[in-house]
Amino acid sequence: MNRFITVAWQLPLLLLLTGCGSQEESEAIALDTLTVEAALDEIRPEAIDHHIRVLADDSLEGRAPGTSGFSGAAQYVETSLSALGLDPAGIDGTYQQPVPLRESLVIEEESGMRISSPSGVEELEYGVDFYLSPDPLRETVSVSEAAVVFVGYGVSAPGLGYDDYANIDVEGKIVAYLTGAPPAFPSNERAYYSSGATKQSEAIARGAVGILGFTYPGDPRFRWEVNLARSKRGSFAW
Fold first, then answer.
1. Residues 6+ apart with CB under 8 A from 41
2. From first to last of its 238 residues, what are the pLDDT tens digits of the chain?
3. Phi (first) and psi of residue 232, to 5 degrees
4. Beta bridge partner(s), residue 103
5. Count of domains for the chain
6. Where does a domain end: 74, 101, 128?
7. Model pTM greater than 0.90?
8. Residue 80 shares a structural domain with residue 128
9. What is the 3-state secondary structure (H, E, C) of the chain?
10. Max Cα-Cα span within the chain
11. Claim to verify: residue 185 and residue 204 sit in the same structural domain
12. How far is it, in rounded angstroms, from Cα 75 to Cα 77?
């Protein structure tokens, strides 16, 4: 049974916390009151700088979940919150709430890829010719054999009069595309269609069983060595 597989692919996860309020509430807030001025006076740039330096220090080794660096960062934040006099709202009187995570890693020695063509079969070397991104939903991911179809940027944007998939059947095939989006797209639209999540969703919706992502050599936005190192760190999901 063929399963969807992603090759040389990065799917960044962005967590954005925002505060919401009604328009009436925002208009009712005056910024020149004594209360606001007193609060602003309590902001100390040197303290903010200190927090950033501590949490960004190399000794925390990136603060990845489940590591000693993560625990050290959490302990520092707890101590800082306690020093501010904030009451803990976590589990068992702490500032923390445990969240179960599933870690996914690629086992390189058990991973491989080969290209078959009329001229023969070529075995590719992991980390040199290709790399894989871990799949948090499956323990084993494989595509025994499938045709590869090039689909430009892998973008379908009817509203912009652009469709890389026009007249191309990718059902049961692996799609190969370039990272990024057409340079002629407006800035916001180009950012959206450059997203790995957007491209992956489009490929899945059209029945593709895999993705091959290609980057332009020397493109500073998609440096091979950076993305390769990121893929080796694995990923977390819940």
1. none
2. 334 444 443 323 232 333 344 445 555 567 778 888 888 888 889 989 999 999 999 999 888 888 899 999 999 999 999 998 999 998 998 899 888 888 888 888 888 888 888 899 999 899 888 888 877 777 777 777 889 999 999 999 999 999 999 999 999 999 999 988 999 999 999 999 999 889 999 999 999 998 888 877 667 777 888 888 888 888 887 7
3. -70, -25
4. 236
5. 2
6. 101
7. no
8. no
9. CCCCEEECCCCCCCCCCCCCCCHHHHHHCCCCCHHHHHHHHCCCHHHHHHHHHHHCCHHHHHHCCCCHHHHHHHHHHHHHHHHCCCCCCCHHHCCCCCCCCEEECCCHHHCCCEEEECCEEEECCECCCECECCCCCCCCCCCCCCCEEECCCCCEEHHHCEECCCCCCCCCCEEEEECCCCCCCCHHHHHHHHCHHHHHHHHHHCCCCEEEEECCCCCHHHCHHHHHHHHHCCEEEC
10. 79
11. yes
12. 5
Sheet hosting strand 5-7, strand order edge to edge: 5-7, 210-214, 174-178, 148-150
Q: Which of 101, 132, 157 is the last residue of a domain?
A: 101
Q: Does 85 reside within a domain?
A: yes
Which of 17, 8, 12, 2 minimizes the C-alpha distance to 198?
12
Tokens describing residue 30: 């005056």
Identify whether 22 is part of a domain: no
The range of the structural domain enclosing residue 122 comes to 5-13+104-237
